[in-house]
Design goal:
Blueprint (H helix, E strand, L loop, with lengths): L1 H13 L1 H40 L3 E5 L5 H11 L4 E13 L4 E9 L17 H10 L2 E5 H7 L6 E4 L2 E9 L15 E5 H4 L12 E7 L6 H15 L8 E4 H40 L1 H13 L4 H37 L14 H18 L1 H4 L23 H9 L1 H16 L2 H33 L4 H12 L1 H33 L9 E6 L4 H7 L6 E2 L3 E11 L2 E2 H8 L11 E5 L8 E6 L13 E6 H7 L6 E6 L2 E13 L10 E3 L10 E7 L3 H14 L4 E4 H44 L1 H9 L4 H38 L8 H22 L1 H4 L9
Parallel strand pairs: 3-7, 4-6, 14-19, 16-18
Antiparallel strand pairs: 1-8, 1-9, 2-3, 2-5, 2-8, 5-6, 10-20, 10-21, 11-20, 12-13, 12-14, 12-17, 12-20, 15-18, 16-19, 17-18
Helix pairs in contact: 1-10, 2-8, 2-10, 2-11, 2-22, 3-7, 8-14, 8-17, 8-22, 9-10, 10-11, 11-14, 14-15, 15-16, 15-17, 16-24, 17-22, 17-24, 17-25, 22-25, 24-25
Length: about 850
């Protein structure tokens, strides 16, 4: 045993360049995979520990109306003795301070707030005193950040609705806001008893009533929540919206889905990086194959068993893989703070990013097993070594390999793909995601490889008509098309990931900030009462800011679809995890003609004449809404609007540009259907100068206290900032994949340079200078890099267009500048890396041919 250990250690020490490059390459690939696992694990652990504090309860009952006495009795009975209850209501309202007026989210709490956790106050205040003062006085509790947004200081007054509230208390941290990515409005806390009589809640106001429940220790919150939801649904009277029940498990699932979508994109970059590292490892090991074939033949000639001789190479690879895994853990530990910077402002406060023991153990296992599995196709060739090879001057495989060896080579690829499948399944959260990713990766790389072979075969015909220098380059590419195709595949895959991210990002940001063919409004006005319509129009009559047409909004319920109750219909057609359709109340509107942000996709326009009450009225439905609901043209829906049931028929489907921030709706009714229904109105304001925005908002809030004014430009800025941060993380992972791809370029270029050392020296003997040979090397590998870069740019063009079409409602714009820069950079990087890798062979003396 000691002999084999000494032989293995000698192989590692005697090949320092191979050892260093192999370990560094595999460590880079593992580091990307480990980063994603550590990031997701840290986030999941933080949510598990703090979810009750963020939600504020074990169960939350939500409704757009107060609970009835029967519903309160049901909730108390099923929660059991010992359960604690707290009441809240939340809504948006304009808040006017001494300097500006802004939309704010008002949360009214009772004396039992919070049920979980503790609140930290500025100036050493005691919670009991603060919560008692909120109930007995018109005071406001808010965070320092919210105070800065409202430009208000302690002791000053905020006008909310028709009442004045004094800024008395500052909250250091709001646990419930830790995972709110978009700050639509700052949050204010009032006493629940102080909201009555303030004029804050009027007809059409969107108010969320909440009952928070803290269950006794050891209670199954998920089971109680399911029973509560069923009992409350059964108790809801006709025409009432059922009460929704939210548990910590439900919140965790939603956050897990949100995190999972983004983690899948990051995981894609990490898995591509690991795959490229595996490809480079196989080429690096192939570089050492010549010497190891001879060493294996010597061992066999000296009487060693074949299994022991092959086990020596396996042990060497496992040792190198272990070293790579340890180095990857160090890399990931050093790079995790970069993730914290990239996601600054999006991650929960107090989140500690770290590498868990399970992630570290998995990295060690992947490093040891992966180093062997990635090199298995090369190791298979060692199984055919015979002592007879010692009598050969050059120990190469026969030109035509036996069928059995070819079959073994193909089968040897399966374990590596199986490892990638398992890792992708872990990152994606399901075997299906793993299978789709692995299959897509195999298909992509196979297509790139076959495309490269076709291009390289064409080099033979081009060489006949080229100059001498270019002829040598093209013939080299044709003669070594297997290595060149591998280089092309590795580089194109890495470049595709790098160039695709800015394409999708640029198109999305361009359309969010300035949708093509339309102008974004500056302000969005909500909760306009019927009696305020004319006054609002007169308010903007003096010119300057432009008021768009007022859109009526009526709330109602979907009762039936094609004669089937809505509850039964959504169970058949809607996704069971789609919480959107677990409510039955929606907003409806009508308009004489479509807005510029809308376009008819199928069907005919709504009739221009008003509905007479005879037969079903006509409905225009938003396209994606119809797909999620499982409804198409010709289907009939029954609606309950203020207790009156009306039937309508879908006559067209619309595509809506939601990024236009105009008053848009899922359902538009034929004119005349909603004329008698109580309603509020929505509208937008454009052409508002930044200097006059605060003044205009303040004057609007003073003239119409119930009006909610949303600053659209601020929302767009926040969306841009979030997109920038998410894209930054993706660019970071894509850059890691690019570095791994360049290592693969280096490995392949070095292998080719060493394999063709005699050819290089022959060129020197024939009179070629080192400069000319360098030029040939740069042209050969630069040409492969250029072809890979061009292919990646074209594929990114198609892929970004497909992503925009499927996911972003066709929002797309190609960034030619970044594509051209990446194309040029890939060509130069590939040529430079190859030149550096082949430098040692270039400086060998031509006399080596005579040795």
């Amino acid at each position: 045993m000691n002999l084999w250990l000494k032989l293995g250690w000698r192989e590692i020490v005697r090949n320092p360049r191979f050892t260093l490059l192999f370990v560094t390459n595999l460590a880079l690939g593992l580091a990307g995979f480990l980063l994603i696992g550590a990031f997701g694990g840290s986030l999941a652990s933080h949510l598990d520990d703090n979810l009750r504090e963020m939600l504020g309860a074990d169960l939350v009952l939500r409704s757009s109306r107060p609970l009835t006495s029967e519903e309160q009795t049901i909730a108390s009975g099923l929660a059991g003795p010992g359960a604690l209850h707290a009441e809240q209501l939340a809504f948006y309202s304009m808040v006017r301070g001494p300097r500006i007026a802004r939309l704010a989210r008002v949360v009214a709490v009772d004396e039992d707030h919070p049920l979980y956790g503790t609140l930290a106050y500025a100036d050493g205040l005691v919670h009991a005193q603060v919560i008692a003062a909120l109930q007995s006085e018109r005071t406001v509790l808010l965070t320092r950040e919210a105070a800065r947004s409202l430009e208000v200081a302690a002791g000053e007054t905020l006008t909310i609705g028709q009442a004045d509230y004094r800024v008395a208390f500052f909250l250091e941290r709001d646990p419930a806001a830790e995972f709110t990515a978009i700050d639509l409005a700052p949050k204010l806390f009032l006493g629940l008893s102080q909201v009555q009589g303030s004029g804050l809640i009027r007809f059409g106001s969107r108010v969320s009533y909440r009952t928070l429940i803290r269950l006794p220790p050891g209670t199954d919150a998920t089971g109680v929540g399911a029973r509560l939801e069923a009992a409350l649904a059964a108790a809801a009277a006709d025409g009432e919206t059922p009460v929704g029940v939210t548990t910590t498990a439900e919140v965790n699932r939603r956050l897990g889905q949100l995190i999972g979508y983004f983690a899948e994109f990051l995981g894609l970059a990490g898995m591509v990086s690991l795959f490229l590292a595996g490809m480079a490892a196989a080429h690096l090991f192939s570089e050492q194959l010549h010497a190891r074939r001879k060493e294996t033949a010597i061992l066999l000639a000296l009487g060693a068993r074949r299994a022991a001789a092959l086990g020596l190479q396996t042990g060497v690879l496992a040792t190198l893989g272990l070293a790579a895994a340890l180095l990857a853990i160090l890399f990931a530990w050093l790079l995790l703070p970069v993730f914290a910077l990239l996601f600054g402002g999006l991650l929960p406060t107090g989140l500690q990013l770290g590498i868990g023991s399970a992630d570290a153990a998995m990295a060690l296992g992947v490093g040891v097993a992966g180093s062997f599995l990635f090199c298995l196709p090369v190791s298979v060739r060692l199984a055919a070594v015979q002592p007879l090879h010692l009598l050969q001057e050059v120990a190469e495989d026969p030109p035509e390999q036996p069928t059995a060896l070819r079959l073994r080579l193909v089968l040897s690829l399966l374990p590596a793909l199986g490892l990638l499948f398992l890792l992708a399944s872990r990152l994606g959260g399901s075997l299906l995601v793993g299978a789709v990713f692995t299959g897509a990766l195999v298909v992509l790389l196979s297509c790139l490889f076959l495309f490269a072979r076709l291009l390289l075969v064409g080099c033979r015909g081009l060489a006949a008509r080229a100059s001498l220098t270019l002829r040598i380059v093209l013939r080299n590419l044709y003669r070594n098309r297997l290595a060149a195709a591998s280089l092309f595949t590795a580089l194109a895959a890495a470049l595709l990931l790098v160039v695709l991210i800015p394409q999708a990002e640029r198109g999305l940001q361009a359309e969010v900030s300035r949708p093509e063919g339309m102008e974004l409004p500056d302000l969005f006005l909500v909760d306009i009462q019927t009696e305020q319509r004319q006054a609002l129009v007169d308010f903007f009559r003096d010119g300057g800011p432009q008021l768009s047409a007022l859109a009526p909004m009526v709330q109602g319920r979907i009762v039936q679809i094609n004669g089937v109750s809505f509850a039964d219909w959504r169970q058949r057609h809607a996704d069971s995890e789609d919480r959107f359709f677990q409510r039955t109340e929606f907003n409806f509107s009508s308009r004489d003609q479509l807005d510029p942000s809308e376009a008819l996709v199928r069907g005919r326009p709504l009739r221009s004449e008003a509905w007479t009450g005879q037969g079903p009225f006509e409905i225009s439905m938003e396209q994606q809404f119809s797909q999620r609901l499982g409804v198409g043209i010709g289907d009939r829906l029954v609606f309950d609007i203020q207790g009156i049931e009306l039937e309508g028929e879908v006559v067209n489907l619309r595509r809506v540009r939601w990024n236009s921030f105009q008053p848009n709706f899922f359902l538009l009714f034929q004119r005349g259907v909603l004329d008698e229904a109580p309603r509020t109105y929505l509208t937008s304001v454009s052409q508002v100068n930044a200097a006059q925005k605060h003044d205009l908002t303040r004057r609007l809030s003073g003239a119409f206290p119930n009006l909610s004014v949303i600053d659209v430009s601020r929302v767009v800025e926040q969306l841009d900032e979030i997109a920038d941060r998410l894209a930054g993380a993706l660019r970071f992972m894509a850059g890691l994949a690019m570095v791994t791809g360049l290592v693969a370029v280096f490995a392949i270029a070095r292998q080719e340079a060493l394999r063709r050392e005699r050819e290089i020296n022959l060129l020197r003997v024939l009179g070629a200078s080192i400069g000319r040979v360098r030029l040939l090397t740069m042209l050969e590998f630069g040409l492969v890099g250029a072809m890979a870069g061009l292919t990646a740019v074209l594929l990114s063009y198609a892929a970004s267009l497909a992503v925009a079409w499927l996911l972003f409602d066709r929002l797309w714009r190609f960034d030619w500048l970044s594509a051209l820069l990446l194309f040029a950079g890939a060509t130069l990087a590939c040529a430079g890396t190859a030149l550096f890798a082949a430098d040692s062979a270039l400086h060998r003396r031509p006399v080596a041919l005579l040795g």
